[in-house]
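ENTRY TYPE: protein
WANTED: fold as tokens:
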Amino acid sequence: MHTKVVDDPTIRWVADSWVDQTTPDDTVFSFLRIPFDYAVSHRPGTRFGPEGILTAFNGFSLYCTDKRVSLDHVRLVDLGRVDVVHSLPETYANITEAVARIPPEQHPVFLGGDHSIADPIFRGLLRRNPGRRFGLIVFDAHFDARPPIPGKEHSGHWMKTLEDVIDYSVTAQLGISAPIYSEYYMRSAEEQGVLVRTPYEIRRRGWRETLEEAISHVSRDTDGVYISVDIDCLDQAFAPGTSVPNGSGLLTHEVADAVFEISGAVPVVGIDINEVSPPLDRLDQTSQLAAHLLLNHMAGVVAGKWA
């Protein structure tokens, strides 16, 4: 149970806003928990991410103060947890099926879990929206494009394993900075059409220009955009609770503002926030940060003209 910070009748709290039934006229955000970290590439613990994020989120009000956007009218639906079993293929199939079943009028939010869940989520969204073409914006320190090794699959492969369904020419990766790659990965991504921007490049160009470029890139002849946020895109000073902390990452307000701007500029078909690991966290700092990203996404959707 969540204890409210203050008893104030003017506030609508997230914890009090979960509903079982909605109407076609409602703005509905549905939350699917994916407590899966069998494919984590380094330190486990992200299976506890969904609960950690929701616990933090339940302590928020439905007013995004920073962006001056009220969410009092939205409805929140808890879709529960995906059935995670001791088999990667079966669990991924369960994720895809759960995503495909989400009602079309709802705005889906996916809480992980390690980043490998992005592959079955994206496949589920394609099944949920047959014949549609989606762009992809990824916030991540890592390319996640290594060829998988059978029996040793991990979360660093999903951008590669999606190659049969993804269109790299409408994909952007923002925040790439991890010092565990060769030039091959940068060159390969860009030759396939991926827009890659490192933190240094973003600082040099500025966020406004970067976002305009990224939104334009992923929106070309697409029917919507999927957002995937690996919490390790952020500097480890702000996001210590993750499998692979990043010592030279993005700043909290930069990613929150970027998620808000993207969510308001284009039709977002879904968002995931992954790699939050409460056992590795400090005073729930990373879970709190992830909850702020959720609030900014929702505020962007509501403030945007396409919602």
In short: The chain has nine helices and ten strands. The beta strands are 28-34, 63-64, 69-70, 75-81, 106-112, 134-139, 171-174, 195-197, 224-230, 268-274. The longest strand covers residues 28-34.
